Amino acid sequence: MLKNECNLYAEAHLFVAAIRVLSHTQKTPPALDQVCRHLAMSLEQGGVVLRKLQKEDIVEVVEQAHGNRLFIKAHLNIEKFRHAKTQSALDKAMAEFKSDKETMSEKIAAIRADQARKKKDLFAQLENQLKKEADARHP
User: Fold this and answer.
1) One domain for residues 94 and 109
2) Predicted structure pTM score
3) pLDDT of 93-134, one tens digit each?
4) Domain co-membership, 115 together with 92
5) How far apart are CA 53 and CA 44, in angstroms?
6) 18 lies in the same domain as 42
């Protein structure tokens, strides 16, 4: 089965389709283990997908005497996964690096501006001091 988050959209469609097919063929809503067997998916991975679908109100789990059964609640919410852009660890690291680099560039620019201001102030102070000394010598 597909592992990364980009494929959650496809996994969600498969999961909901499996619920529909099993509900139709068995004439009863399926349990999680039936859906996982049908999709050749591990129970753990099926649980992860199910929790994500529950979180988005796509699938509802109803507790019954013979075990929990899965019902489709709002299949159109699957479209939320299509637009969800996820980043790989490398993309996240690159974005963090770029952000840190921009922050550092801003700090360097601020330090340079501060140094230029200090230099200008120092030259102005020296010029004033030289004028005072020149005025003192030529009264």
Assistant:
1) yes
2) 0.56
3) 888 999 999 999 999 999 999 999 999 999 999 999 998 888
4) yes
5) 14
6) yes
